[in-house]
Amino acid sequence: MRRHVQAVLLLLTGAAVLHISLLSQVYLRYVKEGLRPFLVASAVLLLALGVVAAVRDGLPFAARPDHSEPDEDDAGDGDEHGGGDEHEHGHDHRSGPRVAWVLFLPVLALLLYAPPALGSFTAARETDNAVARVERFDPLPDADPAPLALSGFIARVQQDRDRGLAGRTVLMTGFVTPAKDRSGTWYLTRLVVSCCAADSRSLRIRVHGAPAPPADTWVAVTGTWHPGGGGALGTAKAAVAVDARTVERVPEPVNPYQDTTPLTP
Questions:
Q1: In sequence order, which residues have a C-beta less than 8 Å from that of residue 50 and are 6 or more positions away?
Q2: What range defines the domain where residue 88 resides?
Q3: By three-state DSSP, how is residue 84 classified?
Q4: What is the DSSP letter of 34?
Q5: Which pTM value belongs to this model?
Q6: pLDDT per residue over 126-157, tens digit each?
Q7: pLDDT single digits (tens) 107-128
Q8: Is 65 left (phi over 0), alpha (psi -120 to 50) or beta?
Q9: CA torsion sign, 189 to 194 to 195 to 199?
Q10: Which residues span the membrane (predicted)?
Q11: Domain end (from 72, 92, 115)
């Protein structure tokens, strides 16, 4: 890859990262919110390196250095010492494998059409609800329905020996993941990230009593705990499921992931 192409790639990469991290909140599809300052700093550094490279290589939009014409003696000396060969040798070093052009594709994707956040395709390949152990549960909000994060619902179903969910109507938000069986149920899902989308884990609650919207649709589900599965509420074998009363479509949140496993929305 020629050196001036490297400069353009640095500038475009810096601009793309700056666009998704500073000028918008698209970065939340890929990393957790706390990493935003590091993305902005990286983008600024890439832009600075791109400008330096552009000036060095004399790109059309950069100031070109003033090259004076060599005198005849200098030209002759250059020929005697193989100046032409040195020029060719240097030119060869400025090129590289053509496959390097592929590096432009992810950069253009971020600038023109940023890939969406992970969804049901990822969640369908995980079955564990990774919820931390909770020593003590605070009382549910007095509101009816009580707003609750998926992690909070799962933790209370499996760990709350006081059965705080018994008889309570809750409101939870997530996206739709189809069930692999033919039970007529589906999953309300959220993905949890510790650092970025690469380490995501799924939180899934089986939904009974409502037809499944299309996969990846974001919905707000109002309902009560669904008994079944042979386990009592507040035990590890309790069914992580809800009997839906209402299912309403909602816009995808700005941050589609949950950081770690909060128990409240």
A1: 7, 8, 9, 10, 11, 13, 14
A2: 3-115
A3: helix
A4: G
A5: 0.71
A6: 666 767 788 889 889 888 999 999 999 999 99
A7: 777 777 777 788 888 777 766 6
A8: beta
A9: negative
A10: 35-55, 99-118
A11: 115
